[in-house]
Structures
1.
Amino acid sequence: MKAISVVPGDPDSVEVRDVAEPRPGADELLVRGRLLGICGTDADIVSGPGYGWAPPGSDRLVIGHESLGTVLHAPDGSGFAPGDLVAGAVRRPDPEPCVPCAHGEWDFCSNGRYTERGIKELDGYGAQCWTVETDFAVRLDPALGDCGVLLEPTSVVAKAWAQADRFTGRTSARPRTALVTGAGPIGLLAALLGVQRGLDVTVLDVNDRGPKAELVTDLGARFHVGSVADLGLCPDVVIECTGHGPLVAELAAASAPNAVICLAGISSRPGSATVDLDEVNKEIVLRNTLLFGSVSASPGDFRRAADALARADRDWLSRLITRRVPMEEFARNVRKDPDDVKVVVDLEA
Ligand SMILES: [Zn+2]
Ligand SMILES: [Zn+2]
């Protein structure tokens, strides 16, 4: 069988190689890979330096953390059966474990010794066949079909929203308006989950290239091109998905009193903007603003993401997948075109 692997940080090292078929352990599923989603994390691992780590004893990492596959073999009594549509979770707890990892909260690992499929010291899902521990597999509504590949990015926003929900409970006022900055896959999925919460959602981006404006309005949300300042909106909740640092200051100034702002994106671009942090500090204090970061997802977030996808309009979800490429085309497509939303690798092509 074939797998896509890379020497992290060496863009010329991406190869599709024949590798031995994996043998499932007693608590593992054997899965036939169907699709693999590509995202900015993969681009950072390929082009590095400084992100992505091969398993100990190897210089190559099988890439891919946005998985979708069909179960070929499941242990008796595991609750899974051949034919099930599944995706695998990304992060595994550290071996020590730290207090959060010991309590199943490895997305909050506090000593940094966690591992991640396709990112940090564990081979990923970019293979025609892969194994996954049953505790780290999520069964998807079979009707989702190819849209199930959106589970991992959805889990990231499911965590962001679950945290925001907890924090908006600080006061008795219920949030009504939400702003999502960035209309990439993460921003669009964050908007979907905001609309599912009954919030009045606006999505902001710097341009309206590709299908994103239509995707936003088809959700029943508003699409806006331009700056936060000229939006004329005081959002109660913000999910920031661009990783553009200076936006944090603009969002702190524009948000409603008691707003909750989740920073869910990071940028690998070097920044050079000057921001008056005293002014940002004053805005945050005087408005009771809660600003927090969110990364990765817990098993519960994966289950909530699977539920959210099952409730979403199937046609809308399928329009997020703008291109499918064969495994050999991974390297050429690891940075998507400006008009793409989500590019996926067809592991069966
Ligand atoms: Zn990703
Ligand atoms: Zn830990």
2.
Amino acid sequence: MALTPELHSFYCDLHVHIGRTSAGNAVKISGSRDLTFANIAREAAERKGMELIGIIDSHSPGVMQDIRDLLMSGEMAEADGGGVTYRGTTILLGTEIEIREPDRKECHVLAFMPDLAAMEDFSAWMSRHMRNVNLSSQRLYAPSRVLQEEICGRGGLLIPAHIFTPHKGLYGCSAERMAELFDLEQIAAVELGLSADSAMAGYISELDRYSFLTNSDAHSLGKIGREYNVLELAAPSFGEFRLALERREGRRVGANFGLNPRLGKYHRSYCAGCGSIIDEAAATSERCPYCGSAKLVQGVFDRILHIADREQPLVPDHRPPYHYQVPLEFIPGLGKAKMNALLAAFGTEMNILHRAGEAELAAVTGPELAAQIVLARSGELALTSGGGGTYGKVSR
Ligand SMILES: [Zn+2]
Ligand SMILES: [Zn+2]
């Protein structure tokens, strides 16, 4: 009988975009210029303390050239079990794809491939069904179930992205049930997105079986780790990631760390006429209670209640805790200088959030800010609701 290897907790953020290739070619136009494959790896390993990072846009031919160069130079190596290693961090090669089925709105899915060869092969396939395979999150002109076969047939993982967002989320705007678009047997997990948590997703029974991921969807280096996961793995690799999503051999998602949904940009419904966020009591009406406009955009929470097939949310026993955490960047008074002092003292953001005691923090930032950081990591900072594309705020 094979020995069960010892498992450890790893910090993981599986949705980080590329802005440019190292040659300066645009990949995600709205992404920041310094968001290259090498810089993301460095930021994740050295500043954030993320041990497994999913780099979305690894399908872009210019990015794959960067990866080949980094492997050739010896700065990075292919990991046993799949992925690319850089210092203590393993990078999973992923891509975000826009699909649009007839008579539906478009939605985004993530695909992860075990290694560079599989990603090259997959990218070549996609290039025949896309206008410009160099760019991020492009529309794929192929049926969703064909895409699913192409991903799974290469040993890849299909994970619907930010599933509840009104903008390109599967449940947010494309479908009321995932089964309308995909074979549920070949969905590896789902990504919750910034305005929902595990309890909210528990209103939809077809999600019970899936592991949930909470990722940053970062478009800049600073946003890496805005949301993240703890995965229990033997080592950070693609193969271990797959086992964790399937909850096999002890591997699992051990915790989700996300914004309180109330801080998310799309939590509540809002009025496109006057910009007001519609509060809970008035959210059921057809018109804006403030200006009378009928141009209401449904927020995540309201959409979930609309498509729910349960009266009360159910959280299955396998579901790990979902910890509300306010990102360090939201904390009033924690500017660049204080942040750099904290990093100099504790190494990485994960150390600041998880390993430093309040007294140790206070020695660097003073007691007031240290107390705020402690409240932020336990999700206890007071917040106002977000909606209509504006984040909620820390109210002091
Ligand atoms: Zn997306
Ligand atoms: Zn994205």
3.
Amino acid sequence: MPAQANPSPKTSAHQNSDVQTIHFHGHKKIYPRWITGYFNNWRIFFVLVTQLFFYAVPWLEINGRQALLFDLVQSKFYIFGLVFLPQDFVYLMALLLVSAFGLFVWTAIGGRLWCGYSCPQTVYTQIFLWIEKWTEGDRAARIKLDQAPLSWHKVGVKTLKHSIWLALSLWTGFTFVAYFTPLAELRSNLAQWSIGPWDTFWILFYALATYGNAGWLREQVCLHMCPYSRFQSTMFDKDTLIISYDRQRGEPRGQRAIGSDYQAKGLGECISCTMCVQVCPVGIDIRDGLQYECIGCTACIDACDQVMDKVGYPPGLIRYTTANALEHPEQPSSWWKKLLRPQVSLFGVVLILVIGASSYSLYLHQPLKAEIARERNTLVRELPSGELENVYRIRLQSTAEQARSFTLSVNGLPGLAIEIDQNEPLSLASTASREFVVRVKTTPKNAKPGANQIRFEITAQDDPSVKISEVATFFAP
Ligand code: SF4
Ligand code: SF4
């Protein structure tokens, strides 16, 4: 990102006729002004969608089990009807690859759309700001309240705000832990005040992280703790979507009477009202150029469009655009027409390939696994009947949500016979695993001396499509 000089890290002030604007940088508190508008509606929409998903999903059940549960104790991951085991590590790798390439492609195309609309830090800060506005009022009221001496009113308002923040944070921590400990168990333990030490620790940890990051640290997390804001400049190019102030249109900026001929005075369209600065949650001035501190929240677009509307100028003095479009206003080109540039196409193809391969693999994914090991003590036994016998231990792991019975067969050599020790039924409870001892026999003339390849086939009795086949070795003297 071609970062330009950030405004002074010291306190700075802007003045106009009716509002004194004070914005702070670094560790100083920022009081973003409340803003409504087209893009703000989209942000509200994304806050609602992401939070509805986060808070509601642990309450969903599929086949009588929590729909999304990462059961670390049992090493089982229940994902909307599918059950994954540590052996399915390859899917985690695929997910990481998709995330990495997806982030690269998405950032090259859309810049900081993720930061502005969906990042948990942005989303929770937004929610906490709503609560702050509801309890303390808008920007001017909050500045006044903070500067006011201690009073019962101030203590009451602050206590109310922090109580709601803390309640929401605790609920968020509880919900987070419910992705790892079954919600029903957590609720029952909570009702009896007997939540275990680890669950208690993580609920409080996540709650404090939410309260601290969204309530207190806010933009400091984006500025100093988030690595994404630092390395994303390497993914930007001149056709990446950015939010920018149109200098050619706006400068020279200056105040003027509404309806006056500003061009005759040599002015541009920026009326220096500083509304774009007042609404900025990270306390920067977008007119100073593209800055890494900008989280792409769009508040300045909504603010400026409202100002433009009031003074009768066209909207879009601050807008979504690209560096190329700003540099060449004489060649208006749509951002979406540049989507297939080489850098994006290359990583896009890799992304599509990884998604395609992992989706196909998931489609073929069988809810059954088998590990076959030969009995170590005896390589081969000659039975009184003259037959040769090899013994195997088969560990079956079902990832189905229902109990299942299976049939076992073996092929690869003529005349193979199979027998399960003690004639145990080959059945498993829901998502259970069990070991079976299996004896395989054939006559000596059917096997060559040494190793012979055979194949076990295991099929679910209630669903023949659930079928796996594993290779093993049959030894003959
Ligand atoms: S809101 Fe628009 S008109 Fe007002 S200072 Fe910012 S860029 Fe200029
Ligand atoms: S400059 Fe605009 S888009 Fe960037 S953080 Fe500030 S208000 Fe949001």
4.
Amino acid sequence: MTETLHIVGGGMAGSEAAWQAAEAGVPVVIHEMRPKVETFAHRTGNLAEMVCSNSFRSDDHEQNAVGLLHWEMRHAGGLVMREAAAHRLPAGGALAVDRDPFSQSVTDALRAHPNVSISGEEITALPEDGRWIIATGPLTSDALGRAIAAETGAEALAFFDAIAPIVYAESIDMDVAWLQSRYDKGETEEERKAYINCPMTKPEYEAFIDALLAADKAEFHEGETAGYFDGCLPIEVMAERGRETLRHGPMKPIGLTNSHKPEEKAYAVVQLRRDNALGTLYNIVGFQTKMKYGAQTEVFRMIPGLQNASFARLGGIHRNTFLNSPTLLDNQMRLRSKPHIRFAGQITGVEGYVESCAMGLAAGRMAAAEILGRTLPPIPQDTAHGALIHHITGGAEARTFQPMNVNFGLFRPVDGLKGGRRGRKDRYKAYTDRAKQDWSAWVASQEVPA
Ligand SMILES: Cc1cc2nc3c(=O)[nH]c(=O)nc-3n(C[C@H](O)[C@H](O)[C@H](O)COP(=O)(O)OP(=O)(O)OC[C@H]3O[C@@H](n4cnc5c(N)ncnc54)[C@H](O)[C@@H]3O)c2cc1C
């Protein structure tokens, strides 16, 4: 008899993982605690409930990395994308859906599948045997969160994210900014130049503080703030505590000399730190924020050197349970210390419905292949799925790991193409063409001849 795959959590990731494994012929049990145990964000007992926006974001699979993930999931027979198409609402280039019929039909499809059963219970401990995928998402129940922390070490499991904005390196104006670590610290030239620094004069700093104080901010959800606020205050809250607070905190100018104007002492300095091994992404150090997205782009482009910045992701602070995946998971998304347990979805350190669902698709296929004794070729790194998995299980800096959206900054360059903003359209098309080719070959490699 084929071994059963147990999936904890029937959200975006758990639902897709269950579908993929069931379609491959593996019996699946989904353990979903709702509606018996509720979260502060879910409203129904349905699987694949969208907790906030009803959009799967851009559907442009030639010029957008999220659209490419859509394409890849459709091409692999994804359930979530199939039902999203069936319940699509007009939304320009975005894939928006009628949320309740959408999640109802995902639930119905899984209930009707002969290989799937659904068990309405909260899992409170890490299972000692069997084959499992944990896909309990950003609002993993407290008991299971504690059990995971006991296994991984408390410092390797976060209960909230405090995301500083991430900027595409190519969009930073290096005629204004310069490379230097504070006090030139570091053993190697690379370490001594590990940060990008953006200088501010006094009037620029004052205008920046005014804009921060005036910017539109998002509210916290009820139950979201408990206990996590002290270690990482949003920059606008620091600014509210005093106009000079930031200049003595993340924007302090000491130990830095502007290589373009060595004789001028900056009044404040914004630092950016490398965010991935490829060196294509930089995060703005200490700039976690609750400003609304529109306000963030406006305010952050006031920083000299970032006047034309393109953002791979904007900042935020949310309740979010996620693992330090680069240290804890292998490239098959298995917990290194207990390889019979895989993780999928937002808990692995991706961010968003689409990314979570994609990690469910990958984990479902990986687990099914393992159970069926088939060799699954590695997911190609140059696909959107592969780029994300590579990032969370190895490409990202483990020390500063924060949840990540899919974006082209995670992709390896295509040889012979121009960098910079001018060649962007051609470059994105080359990324998506390459990804589609590799993904099609990967999916075809698993098709069992009839
Ligand atoms: C308040 C909020 C707003 C968000 N808004 C957006 C948005 O607008 N757009 C976007 O793209 N992303 C948004 N996200 C992120 C979004 O939740 C995730 O991207 C996505 O739903 C994650 O998918 P998942 O499958 O990993 O988790 P989920 O979809 O949350 O699914 C996890 C499931 O596990 C269940 N569960 C938890 N613990 C247990 C347990 N111990 N035993 C059994 N079942 C359990 C939960 O009930 C849930 O059904 C938001 C997140 C939050 C918290």
